Amino acid sequence: MARLTQAPLRVKLLCVLSMFVAALAATADNPPPDRALCGPFPTNYKEVVWNWLQGVLLDADSAKIDWQGEPRPADLGKDGAHLYGWLVEFRVNSRNRFGAYTGKQSHGALIRNDQVVKGLGFGY
User: Fold this and answer.
1) What are the E-state strand segments in 30-82?
2) Dihedrals φ, ψ of 69, to 5°?
3) Domain locations in the chain?
4) pTM for the whole thing?
């Protein structure tokens, strides 16, 4: 049986370095949009998202939300069409239709003019 040899440390470091450079290049292509294009900063973003979740979650009153930082400017448009707003990222643990908690799941909401214009991570 042939014995597999481990790649030299130099090759492993080169692979890690190339992955790091690729990640940097990917983020450099999509800088955050100008804040002026996103509308006013949503100071009440937690309330806006909570009200929106009332219509999205099956049992919103059971929801436990972990906010993942402040809203940040974003463009979630596709194919050259722009959809500017403030992206709020959060994790939700709420009850499903069987009454069991789903576990913390990552989601997002794009807010513009104190309204959620797009939801992320909800299967639509």
Assistant:
1) 59-67, 72-75
2) 110, 180
3) 32-120
4) 0.73
Contact 85, 76 (CB under 8 A): yes
The string over 44-81, giving b where at least 16 C-beta atoms fall within 10 Å of a residue's C-beta and e elsewhere, is: ebeebbeebbeebbeebeebebeeeeebebbbeeeeee
Q: Which residue(s) pair with 109 in the sheet?
A: 88, 119
Largest Cα span, the chain: 66
Residue (of 79, 82, 87) closest to 110 by Cα position = 87
Supply the pLDDT for residue 22. Answer: 47
CA gap 59, 112 in Å, rounded: 25
Please write the tens of the pLDDT for every residue from 41-87: 999 999 999 999 999 999 999 999 999 999 999 999 999 899 999 99
How distant, in Å, are the alpha carbons of 64, 108, 114, 115 from that of 51? 14, 14, 11, 10
Coil, strand, or helix at residue 105? Answer: strand
- Token readout for 91 is 């994790």
